[in-house]
Design brief:
single chain, mainly beta, Pnp Oxidase, Chain A, 7-stranded antiparallel β-sheet, 4 helices, 14 strands, globular
């Protein structure tokens, strides 16, 4: 029997993404988000939801661009820190020793050490409530060569962090289960 938990944000899992932006002073900034996902395939787009109070919110509104860097499990501590500290008060790259890399296609930096990066130009904003959803059109994807299989990023090589909203905990992805649009074929009429 299922038990009602009320209206809460308990979707699982959510990605751990690092949104890169530049401040008014052109200082690179990075913020961890878990409220994000793919929202369109043509044009290719992702959506990230940010609170107006964040430094990143103002940066994205001004520059009309952001990046999404996908951290691997080995960077869990750095990713967590990027979500706790504010770029208004501290240089997160300097503190963690990670490297801000300027995008060549959008006006935003990404985290050089993270294996997968989506470079986005701001396409739409939607005021939802506490959060504003930013829809970014992906204008380029960059990946470390060692995470590619047949020219595409492989989940078991990127090893992205996952976030469990219920307990506010980080997880890693599990083993390969089967090929999409294939393992369920036995149910097709």
């Amino acid at each position: 029997m299922k038990v009602s938990l009320g209206a809460e944000v308990l979707a699982m899992p959510t990605p751990v993404w690092i949104v890169g932006s530049y401040g008014e002073d052109d200082k690179p900034n990075a913020m961890t988000i878990a409220w994000g996902g793919v929202c369109c395939s043509k044009p290719p787009c992702v959506a990230v939801s940010l609170r107006k109070a964040t430094h990143t919110y103002g940066n994205v509104m001004r520059r009309k661009a952001f990046t999404v860097s996908v951290p691997s499990e080995q960077y869990a501590k750095e990713a967590d820190y990027f979500g706790m500290a504010s770029g208004r008060d501290v240089d997160k790259f300097q503190v963690t020793g990670l490297t801000p890399e300027p995008s060549q296609v959008v006006d935003a930096p990404y985290v050089k050490e993270f294996p997968l990066v989506l470079e986005c130009r701001l396409l739409h904003t939607l005021e939802i409530g506490l959060h504003t959803q930013f829809v970014g059109e992906i204008v380029d994807v960059k990946a470390d060569q060692d995470v590619l299989v047949d020219g595409r990023p492989a989940l078991d090589k990127v090893m992205p962090l996952l976030y469990g909203t219920g307990g506010k905990m980080y997880y890693k992805s599990g083993p390969f289960l089967g090929k999409g649009f294939s393992i369920g074929r036995g149910y097709m009429a």
